[in-house]
Design brief:
The complex is a heterodimer of chains A (207) and B (278). With 207 residues, chain A is mainly α. Chain A is built from 8 helices and no strands. Among the domains of chain A are: 86 residues, no CATH class; 38 residues. Chain B is an all-alpha fold and 278 residues long. Among the domains of chain B are: 56 residues, no CATH class; 96 residues, no CATH class. Classes of the chains: A mainly alpha (207), B mainly alpha (278). At the A-B interface, helix 1, helix 2, helix 3, helix 5 and helix 6 of A face helix 2, helix 3, helix 5, helix 6 and helix 8 of B.
C-alpha cells in the first residue's frame, strides 16, 4: 500500500499519457485536459506546502531568537501583508492598488537588480574564462565578442559584425544546440521510461 | 557567529551611525519627491514619493552586495522572499483554485468569488482531494499517503514528457538537421558559373547545411561516452568541442547583454525616476 499503490499510479498515468498521444479521439483529448487540470490543482497544494515550510522555518527562527531572526520576521511580515492585499474581501485582490504597487515597487526592483547584479559577477568570470590561453578559449572569446559587439554602434564595422553574428547563430550555434537537444530528448525519454516502469523510485523517499 | 540566545553581539556604533545616515538620506529623498511631485493631491505625492524612494532603497540595497553581505542586502532579500511567496500563492489561489476548481465544484462558491459557474464534475473533487492528501506530508505518521498525489504528478509528467520530448527534442531536431547538402543543385557547370559569396548564394547555403549536419553529428559524438575518444572518433569529438565552444560563447554573449540591459534599466530608474537628473 505504501509503495505499491504509488508505483501503480505512476505506471497507469504514465502509460495513459503516452497512449493518449497516439489516439486522436475527442474522448482522449478530454481525458488529457482533465489530467492536466488535475496536475495544476494538485500542484497548487504543493506550493502551499512549500509556503507552509517557509513559514514554519521562519517562525522557529523567531521563536528561538536564532541568528538574524529579525529577517525571518521581515519575511513573514512581507508574506502576510502581500496575502492580505491579495485577499479580495480585505485587500481587493489581484487588481487592487496595493497589490500592484507591492509588485511594481518591491518585487520588480529587487528581482531586476538581482539579475543585473550578475552582470558584475559575469564580468569577473569572463576575465578568468576569456583569457585566450588556448585556441578553444579563443574561439569561445571570439564568438562571445561578436555577439556582444553586435548591438554596439561601430560605424562601418556594424554591418559585417551583424552578419557574422547572424551566421554564428543560424549555423554553428544551431548545430550544437541541436546536438544538445537531441541528447536532452533521449535522456528525457530514458528517464521517463525508468520512472514509468518503476526502475527509478527515489521520489518515494525512504520508508 | 552567534547562533543561540547568548553570545549575540549588538550592532557596533559604526553600524548604528551608518543605519541612521542611510535612514536620513532616504527620508530627505522621500520629502523631496513628495514636495516636487506632479500628482493632483499632496497625499498622492507623499504616497508616490514613498514608493519610488522605497524601490530605490531596495535597488541600492541589492547593489550593496557587490561590497559584501550586509544588513541592507539581507533586508531586501528577506522582504523579497516573503512578498514573492505570497505573490505566487495568491496568484495560484485566484487563477487555479478560483479560476479552475470553483467553477466546477460549487454554485455558491462561484457566486461568492464572482466567477461563472460551468458544471459539476467529480473529477475536480478528486483532484482537490489529492491536493489535500498531499498536505498529509506535514503529519509525521500519515506522511506516506502524500505519495499518492505525488505519484499522480510524477506519472503524468513522465508520460507527458516522454512523448513531448521524443517528438519535439528528438524527432523534429533530427528531421530538421537533414537538409539538402547541395542546395538547389543543377550541375557543376551551373554551380561554378553562378559562384557567389552572398549569404543567400548556393555556396554559402550549402556550406551552412554541411556545417549543421557535421556539427550535429560531431556534437553528438562528443557527448557519447561509451567509446573512447580516439582516432576518427576522437577527431570528430574534437570538432564537436569546437562547435560547442562557439555556441557557449554565443550564449555567454547573449546572457551578458541581457544582464547589462537589466543593469541599464536599474541605473535609468535610479537616475531618472528617483533622482530625476537624466
Amino acid at each position: 500500500m505504501k509503495r505499491q499503490l504509488p508505483l501503480m499510479l505512476v505506471f497507469l498515468l504514465g502509460a495513459f499519457m503516452i497512449i493518449q498521444y497516439f489516439v486522436p479521439a475527442q474522448a482522449s483529448l478530454d481525458a488529457y485536459e482533465f489530467i492536466l487540470d488535475w496536475m495544476i490543482i494538485i500542484g497548487i497544494f504543493a506550493m502551499a506546502l512549500g509556503i507552509w515550510s517557509l513559514m514554519r522555518v521562519s517562525w522557529h527562527k523567531i521563536k528561538r531568537r536564532s541568528h538574524d531572526w529579525q529577517y525571518a520576521a521581515l519575511t513573514l511580515a512581507g508574506l502576510f501583508i502581500m496575502v492580505l492585499f491579495g485577499f479580495e474581501p480585505i485587500g481587493g485582490g489581484l487588481k487592487s492598488y496595493l497589490w500592484l504597487q507591492f509588485y511594481e515597487f518591491v518585487m520588480v526592483p529587487v528581482l531586476a537588480t538581482i539579475f543585473s547584479l550578475l552582470a558584475f559577477f559575469m564580468a569577473s568570470a569572463a576575465y578568468r574564462a576569456f583569457r585566450a590561453r588556448s585556441l578553444l578559449a579563443a574561439v569561445l572569446l571570439g564568438s562571445a565578442m561578436v555577439l556582444m559587439f553586435r548591438v554596439l554602434p561601430l560605424g562601418p564595422l556594424s554591418d559585417p559584425i551583424n552578419e557574422l553574428a547572424g551566421w554564428i547563430l543560424v549555423v554553428p550555434n544551431l548545430a550544437a544546440k541541436r546536438a544538445i537537444l537531441i541528447g536532452v530528448g533521449l535522456g528525457m525519454v530514458a528517464t521517463s521510461l525508468k520512472v514509468i516502469l518503476g526502475i527509478e523510485r527515489s521520489y518515494l523517499g525512504r520508508d | 557567529m552567534a547562533t543561540g540566545n547568548g553570545n549575540r553581539k549588538s550592532p557596533s556604533n559604526a553600524v548604528k551611525i551608518i543605519l541612521v545616515i542611510v535612514a536620513v538620506v532616504f527620508l530627505i529623498s522621500w520629502i523631496s519627491k513628495a514636495t516636487t511631485g506632479m500628482a493632483d493631491s499632496t497625499w498622492l505625492n507623499i504616497r508616490d514619493g514613498f514608493l519610488i524612494t522605497f524601490a530605490a532603497f531596495l535597488t541600492l540595497s541589492i547593489f550593496s552586495f557587490l561590497y559584501n553581505d550586509n544588513p541592507f542586502y539581507k533586508f531586501a532579500e528577506h522582504l523579497y522572499v516573503g512578498v514573492s511567496a505570497a505573490y505566487w500563492m495568491c496568484l495560484g489561489f485566484w487563477s487555479i483554485i478560483v479560476g479552475n476548481f470553483v467553477p466546477h465544484a460549487s454554485k455558491t462558491l462561484s457566486t461568492f468569488f464572482k466567477v461563472p459557474f460551468q458544471e459539476y464534475s467529480w473529477f475536480y473533487y478528486v483532484a482537490f482531494a489529492f491536493g489535500v492528501i498531499l498536505l498529509m506530508r506535514l503529519l509525521p505518521k500519515a506522511g506516506w499517503i502524500a505519495r499518492w498525489p505525488l505519484a499522480v504528478i510524477i506519472g503524468t509528467t513522465a508520460g507527458f514528457n516522454l512523448s513531448r520530448y521524443l517528438h519535439s527534442d528528438f524527432m523534429s531536431q533530427v528531421g530538421n538537421t537533414f537538409q539538402p547538402l547541395f542546395v538547389d543543385w543543377q550541375g557543376a557547370g551551373h554551380f561554378f558559373s553562378n559562384l557567389s559569396l552572398a549569404a543567400d548564394g548556393q555556396l554559402v547555403m550549402s556550406a551552412g547545411n554541411w556545417i549543421v549536419v557535421v556539427g550535429v553529428l560531431c556534437g553528438l559524438v562528443y557527448f557519447f561516452f561509451s567509446k573512447e575518444h580516439k582516432g576518427m572518433f576522437g577527431a570528430a569529438s574534437r570538432l564537436g568541442i569546437w562547435i560547442l565552444m562557439i555556441t557557449f560563447g554565443a550564449s555567454f554573449g547573449y546572457t551578458v547583454m541581457g544582464r547589462i540591459s537589466l543593469l541599464v534599466g536599474r541605473i535609468t530608474f535610479l537616475f531618472d525616476d528617483w533622482l530625476s537628473i537624466l
